[in-house]
Design a protein that fits this description.
Blueprint: E1 6-7, E2 11-14, E3 31-34, E4 46-50, E5 67-73, E6 77-83, E7 86-91, E8 100-109, E9 112-121, E10 135-137, E11 144-146, E12 153-156, E13 163-166
Parallel strand pairs: 1-4, 3-9
Antiparallel strand pairs: 2-3, 4-7, 5-8, 6-7, 8-9, 10-11, 12-13
Length: 167
């Protein structure tokens, strides 16, 4: 069940404050981190990591259009694409142990190239959810669901004899 695309604003990791290109002739591609507060959940969620305000600098390319390439990505992502405005991705049904994924990308022009990574921490939809007995938190929706095959016992009064009925 895909929701609308989420803008996953990143934090620039390396360096934390991109240096201005002193010569006006640079190719700078930053390493990025998308924390869980700015991320999407697992299970077919679409995300976009915008390059706006990350400091990407392609002035070294001059009149040659930079080429943006996805080099690799973790298995918790699919449909990963990149262009000059950012990286688009869709999450798969991730297992609990794989709530962090990495996308490696490069920007090149002519004989110059620079590579970097984006580390994405998926939103844990069940992090603050407490479910009652006989239910579990569905990691795709963040809601409590009945455990299949569980037995629910409810009390009822049957005339003067009373008793319990299992449902």
């Amino acid at each position: 069940m895909a929701n609308n695309c989420c803008l996953c604003y990143p934090t620039v990791c390396s360096p934390t404050t991109p240096k201005k290109c002193p010569t006006g002739n640079c190719l700078y591609v930053p390493h990025l981190l998308v924390g869980s507060d700015n991320s999407v959940g697992p299970c077919e969620e679409e995300g976009l990591i915008p390059f706006e305000d990350t400091g990407i600098d392609t002035t070294l390319c001059g009149n040659t259009a930079p080429v943006y390439t996805i080099l690799s990505h973790s298995q918790i992502f699919k449909n990963v694409t990149i262009n000059s405005t950012g990286i688009n991705f869709t999450t798969t049904i991730a297992i609990e142990e794989a709530s962090v994924g990495i996308i490696s990308y490069s920007v090149s022009c002519g004989k110059y190239a620079s590579t970097a990574t984006v580390t994405i921490i998926l939103k844990q939809l069940c992090a603050s959810v407490i479910c009652s007995a006989g239910t579990y938190c569905d990691k795709c929706t963040g809601t409590c669901e009945d455990i299949e095959g569980s037995l629910t016992v409810a009390g009822s009064v049957l005339g003067a004899a009373g008793g319990l009925t299992t449902i």
